[in-house]
Amino acid sequence: MAKKNIVLINRELSWLSFNERVLQEAEDESVPLIERIKFLGIYSNNRDEFFRVRVATLKRVQKHQKKAQGIMGQHPKRLLETIQKIVIAQQTKFEHIYQQIISDLEEHNISIVNETQLDTRQEHFVKEYFREKVMPSLFPVMLGHNMSFPYLKDKSGYLIVKLGRNKKKSKYALIEVPTDQISRFVVLPKENEKNYIILLDDVIRVCMEEIFPNFEHDYIEAYNIKLTRDAEIDIDNDLSKSLVEKLSKGLKERKKGQPVRLVYDSQIAPDILAFIMKKIKLRKEDNPIPGGRYHNFKDFISFPNVGAQELSYKKIAPLPHPELKGQANYFKVLKKKDVMLTFPYQSYEHIIDLLREASIDPKVQSIKITLYRVAKNSNIVKALINAIKNGKQVTAIIEVQARFDEEANIYWAGKLEEEGAKVIFGVPGLKVHSKMFLIARKEGGKKITHYAHVGTGNFNGDTAKIYTDHSLLTANKNLTEEVERVFGFYEDNTKPGTYRHLLVSPFFMRKRLVAFINQEIKNAKAGKPAYIILKLNNLVDPLMIKKLYEASTHGVQIKLMVRGICSLVAGVKGLSDNIEAISIIDRFLEHSRVFIFCNNNDEKYFISSADWMTRNLDHRSEVALPIYDSKIKKELRAIIDTLWDDNTKARILGSKQDNEYRKNDSMSRVRAQEDIYLQLKQKNTRSN
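^ that's the sequence the OP posted. Answer follows.
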C-alpha cells in the first residue's frame, strides 16, 4: 500500500540509467582507449544480465497484469515497451562509440580488421590458425524450413549462414562461435610497428569455403545473432531431495529458459531474420534488437592490451597495510587494535595471510566462514582446506543460491566436504549474504579468544582487485561475541540471537536503521546538527526511501552515493530538498556500503554487506558492523569525503536521469579513486 504514495523512480529504468553511466565511460575521451573498449564489454555484460533477470521477470508477470500493476505501480507491458525504446537508443549510441574507438585505435597503430581487409600474408596466417585452432571446435548445423531449429544457448554467439544460389533455393546453416574454447581476439603478426587484430567471428568467415565444401552455392553470407534466456531457477518442492539436488536440476532447466531477447546484425537479410523469428517463436514485441556486425561484446572485457602503455590504465600496486606490513603474527596486532583494509588500494593478501596463519597456528581451534562468491582458483578455500589438514575444525556456510555462481559454489562445497569441513547450505528461506569469518584461538590456558572479519565484499581475491570494499579485522569482544552469535544462528536457525552492536537482517537491521533516522529527525527538530551519509550499491526499498524523505522535510541533511539503482528522487521541492545524490563510475567498481549518522556530532559509523533493498533487509542474512576505533573512523570519513568531493567521475542522480557530470565549487580536480590511493600511500610513507 505504501508504495502507491511514495515518489519513486522505477527500478528497471533506474538500472538502465546506471548502465548508461557505464556507456559514458566508454565514450569519455579521457579514459585510455583500450579501457574504453572494455567498458563497452562491461556495458554489454550488464545488459545481458538485465534481460536474463529483470526483463525475464517482467515477461513472466505480464500473465498477472492487474496484480503486477498494483505491486509495481506500472503496467508491465508498457514498461517493457519503454525498456525496449531505451535499449535500442543505447544500442545506437553503443555502435557510434564503438566505431569512434575503432577509428581512434587506428591512429595509435591498432587495426581491428575483418575478413575483407586482409592482405595475402595475413590471410595465409588466418587460414593456418583456423585449420589448427578453430576448425576442430566447429560443428555447423544445417537448417531447413521443415526441420526443428537447433537449441540456441544463452550467452553464446552464433553465425547464421546463407549459402545463396541464383534462381535456386538457398540453404541455411548455424555455427556457434566457440569463444568458450578460443579467444575472441586473434592478434595477427605485427607489420611495420602496426598491430592487427581480427575477431574469431571473422576468422570463421574467411574460411567459409572450407567449412561447406560439399554444398553448391554462388555466394555465402554470414550474420551474427545472439539469444538471451530467462535466468530464473525454479526449485521444486520435492522434500525427498536435498537443496543441492534441487538446485542442480534447476540449473539444467535454466539453460533451457524461455527466450527474452534476440540481438541480430541490422544488415541481416529479411528472409533470414523472419526464418529465425518463426523458428524460435519470438514475436516483434519480444525484444528483437537490431545491432552491429558483432554481438557478445562481453568478450571485449578481455580485449588484448596491445600498443602503447598509455592506452591502458597504469597498474597500481596494492599497498601493504601499515599495521600489518612485515608482521609475522597478525594475532598480536589484532589483540591490540582493530585494522581496516580498503580494497583494491590495499593488499587482499592480508586476508589470505591471516587465514593461512590460522591454518597452521597450533593455538587455533576452529575457523567459521560465510562464502557467497569465491575466486575461480580460490586461495581462501585452499587456506581452509589446509586448516582441516592441520586438525582445525572448519565450518563453511556456503550460499548455493548466489545467482550465476550456483555451480561454482556447489563445486567448492563438495571440495570442502571431501576434506572434512562442516558445510552448511545457507538458511532455509534466506540468502546468506554476510561477509564474515571467525577464528577461535586458545590463549592463556583454556581461555578462547576470537578474531573476526566483517566486510562489504566477497571472499574473492579476483574481484578484490577491481571492486572497492572495506574489511574490518577485530578482536573486540563486543563485536566477536555477536559475530559468534550470527554463526550460531546459521548452525541452529531457531536461535536468531540478540545484538547490541551489530545490525543483523532480517531480524533487526531495518528497525535499528529507522531508529537512527528517527534520532536525526528528533535532533533536527531540536535545532541540533543532523545529517546522514549513505554509500550504497542500490537504494530501492520504498519504506526506507519514505523515511529518508521524512527526514529531509524535517531538515536532516542527507548525502547519498549510489552506484547502481536509486529509486529515491533527490532535490524535489517540499519532499527531498535536503537530499543530494551522486553516482561514481570509474576504473574500479564502487562496491562498499557505508552508513554514517551524525548523532549530534557523536557520529555512528557502519560498514555493511547490505544495500537498502527489500531483499537485503527482509529476505537475506546481512550484517552491518559498527566502527569504534577513532583512527579508523577518521580514515573512513576521509575516504567518504573524497568520494563526495569527486568532480571528475561523479554524476548527479536526479529525476531526469540524464547522468549530468557533477561539478563542485572546488577549483582543483578531484578524482576520488586516484586520490584515495594517494592518501593511503602517503599514510604508508608517514608510518615508515
